[in-house]
Amino acid sequence: MGFTEYKCTDFVDILATKAPVPGGGGASALVGAIGTALGNMVGSLTVGKKKYADVEEEIIELKKKADALQAELLALVEKDAEVFEPLSKAYGLPKDTEKQKAYKAEVMEKCLVSACAVPIEIMEKCCEALDIMKEFADKGSKIALSDAGVGAVMCKAALQGASLNVFINTASMKNREVAEATEAKANAMLDKYTVFADEIFNGVRARL
Q1: Among 23, 109, 155, 192, which is most exposed with the fewest C-beta within 10 angstroms?
Q2: What would the pLDDT profile of 122-171 be if each residue is shown by its tens digit?
Q3: pLDDT interval class at 99 (50, 70, 90)
């Protein structure tokens, strides 16, 4: 059974243990999915209302994008666990001989690259979610405006959380060219979308 099929209480309980997965990456992906769903809820409360008939087609398209992002982020909860488990095992490889050290270094490097790829993807999905959250906040039903703001805050948290999972892995990489390129990609998303998320939140707050 995948982690996303757990009851909320079970997921939280296992998250609190010393089990290697789920961890911060999977938790970030789940938070991103929940944040995206809150924006989607704003869309659901908008469609079919005469007051918003002029934006209904646009909201329907935004909801389709939100549906896809929710599914992708939930899939990334599982994917993050899949790529982190080999890395956690690699840390325990023996390094008593030069041969063992070389083998461990090789395995670690491969695992670290894989372990970075998933949180980078989580970050990308959160950025996409924030783009549509702005539209839900600007054009969606005013009775659910606060939910768009909450969604933006959660997607920002997921974005930042996933970035830490990138940086902790790039710090251990021997290939600094790959590490620095990965960090640059993460930093670019953080620089743009944390500010953007704050703008959405402040815009919502001002209208309440």
Answers
A1: 192
A2: 999 999 999 999 999 999 999 999 999 999 999 999 999 999 999 999 99
A3: confident
What are the two backbone dihedrals, phi and then psi, of residue 33, each rounded to the nearest 5 degrees? Answer: -65, -40
**pLDDT, greater one: 39 or 20:** 39
Q: What residue has token string 């060219």?
A: 177
- Structural tokens at position 51: 């007051």
**Residue 174 belongs to domain spanning:** 3-207
One-letter amino acid identity for 115? A
Q: At what angle do helices 56-90 and 145-170 cross, to 10 degrees?
A: 30
Inter-CA distances, 151 with 16, 61, 135, 173, Å:
24, 18, 12, 34
Find out whether 118 and 79 touch, Cβ atoms under 8 Å.
Answer: yes
For the chain, what is the radius of gyration of the CA atoms? 19
Q: How confident is the model at residue 102 (pLDDT cuts 50, 70, 90)?
A: confident
Q: What CATH number corresponds to the domain at position 121? A: 1.20.120.680
Lookup result for tokens 């695992």? 111
Report the domain count for the chain. 1
